[in-house]
Amino acid sequence: xxxxxxxxxxxxxxxxxxxxxxxxxxxxxxxxxxxxxxxxxxxxxxxxxxxxxxxxxxxxxxxxxxxxxxxxxxxxxxxxxxxxxxxxxxxxxxxxxxxxxxxxxxxxxxxxxxxxxxxxxxxxxxxxxxxxxxxxxxxxxxxxxxxxxxxxxxxxxxxxxxxxxxxxxxxxxxxxxxxxxxxxxxxxxxxxxxxxxxxxxxxxxxxxxxxxxxxxxxxxxxxxxxxx
Length: 228
Fold this sequence. Notes:
Layout: H1 3-12, E1 20-23, H2 27-43, E2 48-51, H3 54-62, E3 78-82, E4 85-86, E5 91-93, H4 100-108, E6 113-118, E7 131-135, H5 140-149, E8 153-156, E9 158-159, E10 162-163, E11 171-176, H6 186-194, E12 199-202, E13 204-206, E14 211-216, E15 219-224
Parallel strand pairs: 1-2, 1-3, 3-6, 6-14
Antiparallel strand pairs: 4-5, 5-13, 7-11, 7-12, 8-11, 9-10, 14-15
């Protein structure tokens, strides 16, 4: 069993009968969904899930996991998702899989959030791979220009020769922010970005999770957020 599978399977033990559950997107969340499907089939686990992407929805449906539309589940008991990077202050970056907007909507509706990852995602400083920023296709080059004027270095995400498109039919700018005035003031940076016309959402998830389940070298580590 690899680290991602260990983390995903461990997180599935936090899901109890009667819960409404947010299920994430990505390679680690895949194993969470796999284990929940096993529990539904073998234990008769009684849950309803809200998915953060078309990919996760299709996989959950294939395993017989009951699903709800997010508009029909305004409050979730728990949300379990992966994370691309997280620092000791529980500042995270998500969006490597392109589902950051839906992931944030679902996470914000949950009473309790768990992030699952292999231990390589635990870093001292986030941002090594850039910050995903979801933008409207209409006028996105205006956003690029404004970002560049502020010191950001945005790169339009591609899928082969085509522009990558999110489930919401938006584009993603993978953005380096090392030369901006914000440095590690992530809250100020997010306020600046969210105030820019054309930006739908950022990949910053700042102090939003309650628990991290990390796996590596056959060891599972749980880290509780002391600020939650």
